[in-house]
Design a protein that fits this description.
The chain has 1 helix and 10 strands. By secondary structure, the protein is of the alpha+beta class. The strands form 2 sheets. Strands 1, 2, 4, 7, 8 and 10 form a 6-stranded mixed β-sheet that branches. It has a 4-stranded antiparallel β-sheet with strand order 3-9-5-6, with no helix packed on it.
Length: about 120
């Protein structure tokens, strides 16, 4: 429960800061944070990997944003966004980071949603 509250508090604080400054993308070293309103596509090159640290959404809870990875011609939804409304009562549980190895295409589908997406890029 403590990890969930820390994640919730940090997510809200960073989202508020990004919205206040008008930034849609912020990065510090190899960690990137983005606010996605419709769709974001990232082409992950070979010998790189992406660790998804946060994938949460604000807005209509009936439509969940999805993180879809395409690799070798096959696509797979690897995560549905965590709702940041109604926490800590939410049934969503933070299940840890997702690691994606390149080459791959990573797409955030967020139709009509505001999604906060944080990831780290590193060498494979």
């Amino acid at each position: 429960m403590q990890l969930k509250m820390k994640l919730y508090t940090r997510t809200l604080a960073l989202m508020f800061l990004m919205l206040l400054t008008g930034a849609s993308r912020v990065h510090a070293g190899s960690v990137f944070s983005e606010v996605v309103n419709e769709q974001l596509t990232i082409n992950l090159p070979a010998k790189k990997s992406m660790t998804v640290l946060n994938f949460s959404q604000q807005g209509d809870p009936s439509t969940r944003a999805r993180l879809v990875v395409t690799k070798g011609g096959f696509s797979l939804t690897v995560r549905a966004a965590t709702q940041i409304i109604n926490l800590p009562q939410s049934d969503d549980v933070y299940s840890g980071p997702v690691v994606i190895a390149g080459p791959a295409e990573v797409v955030v589908f967020a139709p009509g949603q505001t999604v906060f997406f944080t990831y780290k890029l590193q060498a494979n």
